[in-house]
Amino acid sequence: MSKQFTTADVAAHNTVEKGLHIIIDNDVYEMSGFVDEHPGGAKILKRVGGKDASKQFWKYHNESVLKKYSPKLKIGTVKEAAKL
Protein backbone atom coordinates (compact mmCIF):
# COMPACT_ATOMS: atom_id res chain seq x y z
CA MET A 1 0.00 0.00 0.00
CA SER A 2 1.35 3.40 -0.92
CA LYS A 3 1.73 6.20 1.58
CA GLN A 4 -1.16 8.63 1.92
CA PHE A 5 -0.65 12.39 2.17
CA THR A 6 -2.99 15.23 3.01
CA THR A 7 -2.88 18.33 0.84
CA ALA A 8 -1.32 20.08 3.85
CA ASP A 9 1.48 17.46 3.90
CA VAL A 10 2.17 18.14 0.23
CA ALA A 11 1.99 21.92 0.73
CA ALA A 12 4.68 21.68 3.42
CA HIS A 13 7.06 20.19 0.83
CA ASN A 14 7.16 23.17 -1.50
CA THR A 15 10.91 23.64 -2.00
CA VAL A 16 13.79 21.44 -3.12
CA GLU A 17 15.28 21.72 0.37
CA LYS A 18 12.09 20.44 2.03
CA GLY A 19 11.48 17.80 -0.65
CA LEU A 20 9.57 19.12 -3.65
CA HIS A 21 6.21 17.35 -3.74
CA ILE A 22 3.56 17.84 -6.41
CA ILE A 23 0.15 16.30 -7.01
CA ILE A 24 -0.93 14.95 -10.40
CA ASP A 25 -4.40 13.38 -10.52
CA ASN A 26 -4.40 12.64 -6.76
CA ASP A 27 -0.99 10.94 -6.88
CA VAL A 28 1.94 12.51 -5.02
CA TYR A 29 5.37 12.78 -6.65
CA GLU A 30 8.72 13.71 -5.06
CA MET A 31 10.45 15.92 -7.60
CA SER A 32 13.52 17.33 -5.84
CA GLY A 33 15.83 14.73 -7.42
CA PHE A 34 14.33 15.38 -10.86
CA VAL A 35 14.39 19.19 -10.91
CA ASP A 36 17.69 19.44 -12.77
CA GLU A 37 16.70 16.72 -15.27
CA HIS A 38 13.31 18.24 -16.15
CA PRO A 39 13.39 19.13 -19.87
CA GLY A 40 11.16 22.16 -19.24
CA GLY A 41 13.60 23.48 -16.65
CA ALA A 42 13.73 23.59 -12.87
CA LYS A 43 11.82 26.86 -12.60
CA ILE A 44 8.47 25.38 -13.63
CA LEU A 45 8.70 22.52 -11.12
CA LYS A 46 9.67 24.90 -8.34
CA ARG A 47 6.64 27.07 -9.20
CA VAL A 48 4.18 24.16 -8.68
CA GLY A 49 5.93 22.64 -5.65
CA GLY A 50 3.53 21.80 -2.85
CA LYS A 51 0.51 22.14 -5.14
CA ASP A 52 -1.77 20.20 -7.47
CA ALA A 53 0.01 20.46 -10.80
CA SER A 54 -2.44 18.30 -12.79
CA LYS A 55 -3.63 21.10 -15.07
CA GLN A 56 -0.09 22.26 -15.88
CA PHE A 57 1.17 18.69 -16.33
CA TRP A 58 -1.50 17.61 -18.82
CA LYS A 59 -1.11 20.83 -20.79
CA TYR A 60 2.45 19.83 -21.76
CA HIS A 61 2.67 16.04 -21.27
CA ASN A 62 0.88 12.86 -22.27
CA GLU A 63 0.30 9.62 -20.39
CA SER A 64 3.54 8.05 -21.61
CA VAL A 65 5.51 10.61 -19.58
CA LEU A 66 3.62 9.63 -16.43
CA LYS A 67 4.16 5.92 -17.11
CA LYS A 68 7.87 6.47 -17.67
CA TYR A 69 8.53 8.45 -14.49
CA SER A 70 5.90 7.17 -12.03
CA PRO A 71 7.95 4.19 -10.80
CA LYS A 72 10.83 6.51 -9.92
CA LEU A 73 8.99 9.59 -8.64
CA LYS A 74 5.59 8.55 -7.25
CA ILE A 75 5.63 8.34 -3.45
CA GLY A 76 1.93 8.02 -2.60
CA THR A 77 -1.58 9.33 -3.00
CA VAL A 78 -3.67 12.18 -1.62
CA LYS A 79 -5.84 11.13 1.29
CA GLU A 80 -9.52 11.95 0.88
CA ALA A 81 -10.63 14.72 3.20
CA ALA A 82 -13.28 13.67 5.69
CA LYS A 83 -16.75 14.53 4.50
CA LEU A 84 -18.82 16.19 7.23
TrEMBL record:
Belongs to the cytochrome b5 family. Residues 2-79 form the Cytochrome b5 heme-binding domain. It comes from Cryoendolithus antarcticus. One of its GO terms (cellular component) is membrane. The keyword Iron applies. This is Putative cytochrome b5. PANTHER family: CYTOCHROME B5 (PTHR19359), CYTOCHROME B5 A (PTHR19359:SF14). InterPro entries: Cyt_B5-like_heme/steroid-bd, Cyt_B5-like_heme/steroid_sf, Cyt_B5_heme-BS, Cytochrome_b5. Keywords: Heme, Iron, Metal-binding. One of its GO terms (molecular function) is metal ion binding.
